[in-house]
Amino acid sequence: MRWALCDNLPMLPAKFRERVLRDLGEEQGRALCEALKGEPPVSLRLNPACAGDAEELLRELGATKRVPWHEDGWYLSERPQFTFDPAFHAGAYYVQEASSQFVGLLAGDAAGCRILDLCAAPGGKTTLYATLAGPAGLVVANEIDRRRAAVLADNVRKWGTGNIAVTTCDPRALGDFEGWFDIVAADAPCSGEGMFRKDPGACEEWSENNVKQCAIRQDAILREAWRALKPGGRLIYSTCTFNREEDEGTLERMLAWAGDEVAEAPETKTDERWGVECGRVGAFRTYRFYPHKTCGEGFFAAVAQKSPAAESRMRTPKNRRTLFTPADKATTRELSRWVREADEMRFAMVAETLYGWPQEQAEAVRQLSEVLPVIYSGAALGQLFKGRLKPDPALAFYRNLNREALPQAELEREEALEYLRRGEVRAAGLAEGMNLICHEGRALGFAKRIGGRVNNLYPSSLRILKRKP
Ligand code: SAM
Fold it and tell me: Sign of the C-alpha dihedral, residues 134, 138, 143, 148?
């Protein structure tokens, strides 16, 4: 792991330095400031739903050791050029800094849970929760900013778990789904002090006034998070900043209005060697990650539970439209050729595209979609032409794609990168008709061979634009 100092980073804001030296004391404060000028560790989280040899992949990427608090998390010896790794485009891993992977521990056993990720883009924690929730669970990933929500949806498609619905609205609209969720995560927008070394822009944008504005926004977000949480459910609050006002302060302000509805969550076991500072704010357990003490970026996380005795009301807002047209028998038969475990899914058409959802969550996704702007959900399967499915690009990544439904074409690395650039693909390696394009067994997308010609069907919005230096 490299912790070398890097002189070309912007100076830390003077007011920030002053505060850190005052709050942490001279020695710890200086150590933190030095660490913020160093190089951040590089880490990722593997996608267990993705095909391929994970051990081989980790070797190729230069993985050194596991992230101690997340079993799918790994540190790398240096930052590879992820753009030129086909496995990255196949959704085999998410490049996620290590500290934030800690929220997985706070979620506990989340299999089958309905999780709301209120501030979700670009999707690091969403994809982590989706893996934990498993096929019977649902993650509603919300992002207020539409452009960022589109990036979130791209990452969700690639993750391929089929158990995520992406919404783009103000948290208030989700708060109206009162008592709906087993877990609500608010990874709140913050002043980003923990990101100073990773993102020098965060350093330039920092001001005391911005800290105050962020705190106000966090208060509003937590009110909605609390409304959406069911009694007995868990609230996970996190930021990537160090100041009290946005961390413990936000929890204190929440406790002032939520009072004894906030109860302790079951204990999360940590290990002293991780260097995480554990604390408490009322019933909240808190966890601070300082880059001079832990191998990760600056991060703050807290967890509590909504008392099971809290006033219990589950409310679904009145629907505004009907969007889902259930698939008829013939359509279901055709779709069942393309997906495994089709009996456990529900299929319907939304705006010309056919989708599939796990049975357990299909009704919830329908209810959400009839009220909120849901820009992606479940697994997009494709469109029907003369009774045959033209697969959606997202189907290539779906963990339950039935690979026996069509021929697979395995491309060498350079050919795979050319495919991802939407370049030419040689007809020789493909069967006539639709093919699943793979590299090292991992699906990248579709291509159709018609005689000597190949139609590259990789979405142009995702194509690689860079050339290898
Ligand atoms: N959870 C994400 C992840 O792990 O990849 C990172 C989320 S980032 C820290 C916070 C997000 O909150 C940003 O995408 C930002 O656009 C969004 N946001 C900004 N203002 C918001 C608001 N008023 N309510 C909810 N979300 C907001």
Answer: positive
Distance CA 459, CA 446 (A): 10
Tell me, in angstroms, the distance from the centre of ligand 1 to residue 147's CA.
12
Q: Residue 192 phi/psi, 5° resolution?
A: 65, 30
Considering only CA atoms, which residue is closest to atom 9 of ligand 1? 189
Kindly state the tokens that stand for 342: 């089709």
Percentage with pLDDT > 70 across the chain: 98
Beta strand pairing call for 442-450 and 433-439: antiparallel
Rounded mean pLDDT of 38-63? 96
329-350 core/surface letters (b: 16 or more CB in 10 A; e: else): eebbebbbebbbebeebbbbbb
Average pLDDT of span 461-466: 94
**Distance, CA of 71 to CA of 4 (rounded, Å):** 27
> What secondary structure, in 3-state letters, does 41-69 show?
CEEEEECCCCCCCHHHHHHHHCEEEECCC
pLDDT at 238 over 90: yes
User: Ligand 1: distance of its center to the CA of 240 in Å?
Assistant: 11
Q: Which of 44, 116, 129, 144 to mutate to test the pocket of ligand 1 (most atoms within 8 A of CB)?
A: 144
Over residues 366-401, the pLDDT tens digits come to 999 999 999 999 999 999 999 999 999 999 999 999
CA atoms within 13 A on the CB side of 149: 22
- What residue ranges line ligand 1, CB within 6 angstroms? 100, 119-125, 143-145, 148, 171, 187, 189, 217, 221
Ligand 1 pocket mutation pick from 117, 119, 195 by most atoms within 8 angstroms of CB: 119
What is the pairing mode between strands 345-350 and 325-326?
antiparallel
pTM score: 0.96
User: Nearest residue CA, atom 15 of ligand 1?
Assistant: 189
Residue 412 has pLDDT above 60, yes or no: yes
The answer, yes or no, to whether the previous bond of 122 is cis (omega within 30 of 0) is yes
pLDDT digits (tens, 9 = 90+) for 267-281: 999 999 999 999 999
Could you give phi then psi for residue 68, rounded to 5 degrees? -65, -25
Q: What is the Å distance from ligand 1's center to 48 Cα?
A: 26
Please provide the DSSP assignment of 379-447 as one string.
EEEEEEETTEEEE-GGGGG-TTB-GGGS-EEE--HHHHHHHHTT----GGGS-SEEEEEEETTEEEEEE
CB 125 within 8 A of CB 117: yes
Rounded distance from Cα 167 to ligand 1 centre (Å): 13
Q: Report the catalytic residues.
A: 240
Q: Where residue 37 falls among pLDDT bands split at 50, 70, 90?
A: confident
pLDDT for 180 beyond 90: yes
